[in-house]
Design goal:
Strand order of the largest sheet: 1-2-3-4-5
Number of strands: 5
Shape: elongated
Low-confidence stretches: 1-11, 29-38
Number of helices: 5
Radius of gyration: 30 Å
Distance between the termini: 57 Å
Helix content: 55-70%
Length: 188
């Protein structure tokens, strides 16, 4: 199965094709205008006729890239396998750091509740929507007070990010709040 040219080669080809198309257009335009000068609509019609007759559309197609080699396919599969291993290790770590109540919440609701040891605030860490904006401050009845967005940079597994958020909220939620983007949802 062929794929379109991507990256730098595609950009260079597109720039070349665009420049070539412009050259053909302006050349046809100049030649036509020198031939047909009595009416602009007539000149315009002739320009299009010349353009369509002279353009070689094969010059402007994007060429298909080559098929990936067996080595490239194997390397891609190896990257997938390693990613799956990292995700599995991260899931196991998350399960290890959660207490029984948090594990039940995770299984039943796809979130877990974190109680700050310093401020006595409560937070809900949602694990079904990614790591950005997945933390909610909740009141004693479980109603959302605010959404907090604070996530690590880089390509780490999501479950590792959830572990980091949990530990940070438990031990220094004020520090978490200083860094996080906070959106008030209702009065505290």
């Amino acid at each position: 199965m062929a794929t379109l040219v991507q990256g730098t080669a595609a950009n260079q080809y597109t720039q070349y094709a665009s420049a070539q198309a412009w050259t053909n257009w302006t050349t046809a335009s100049v030649n036509t205008c020198s031939i047909t000068t009595n009416a602009s609509s007539n000149a315009s019609s002739t320009i299009w006729i010349n353009w369509n007759d002279s353009a070689s559309w094969n010059d402007y197609r994007v060429f298909a890239a080559r098929e990936p080699t067996q080595a490239e396919l194997a390397a891609k599969e190896e990257r997938k396998r390693k990613l799956a291993e990292r995700q599995e290790r991260a899931r196991k770590l998350l399960e290890e750091v959660l207490d029984e109540q948090q594990q039940r919440e995770l299984e039943e609701h796809r979130y877990f509740t974190v109680h700050s040891r310093t401020s006595k605030r409560r937070y809900r860490v949602k694990v079904n929507a990614g790591v950005h904006g997945n933390v909610e401050e909740i009141d004693h009845e479980g109603r959302v007070i605010a959404s907090l967005c604070c996530a690590p940079e880089g390509g780490i597994p999501k479950d590792d990010a959830f572990v980091g958020q949990k530990l940070w909220l438990e031990h220094d939620d004020e520090g978490f709040r200083r860094v996080a983007n906070i959106t008030r949802r209702r009065a505290a």
